[in-house]
Amino acid sequence: MTGEVIAATAHPKADRRSSCSEKLAERTKQIVSGIRQFLTRPNRWSAKRSSWFDNLQPTKLRGEDSFGRLLAVRLPEGGLRLITTDGRPPSGLYVS
C-alpha cells in the first residue's frame, strides 16, 4: 500500500531499529524497522509517500507494536532509499 511517513524516530529500546508513523488513508499505523543506521536526518523522511506491506500480522519488536513493513532498497554505496511513488498519489492505494 501507499502511505505517507508522518514521523521517523529512533526506537527507545533497540540500537538498530526505528519507529515510523505512517498515514494510510484516514488511519495511522506504526511500523518498526531496522533502518535506524540510515536515519541520519529522520526529518528528511517525513512527508514522503512510501510503499509498504499492510497485510502482515501485527507484531511486537522490542516492546513496540509494528503493523507493517516498509519497502526499501539498499544502495551499492551503502545507503538506503525508501521505495516511493512517482508524484503524490493519495495514501491508502494498493501497490500492484
Structural features, described:
With 96 residues, the protein is mainly beta. The protein has a single domain (2-82), classed as Nucleic acid-binding proteins (OB fold (Dihydrolipoamide Acetyltransferase, E2P), Beta Barrel), CATH 2.40.50. Helices cover 0% and strands 44% of the residues. It has strands spanning 2-10, 18-24, 27-33, 49-53, 59-61, 64-66, 69-70, 72-74, 80-82. The chain has a five-stranded antiparallel sheet with strand order 3-2-1-4-7, with no helix packed on it. It is globular, with a radius of gyration of 13 Å.
List the main descriptive attributes of the protein structure presented here.
OB fold (Dihydrolipoamide Acetyltransferase, E2P), two-stranded antiparallel sheet, 96 residues, 9 strands, 0% helix, mainly beta
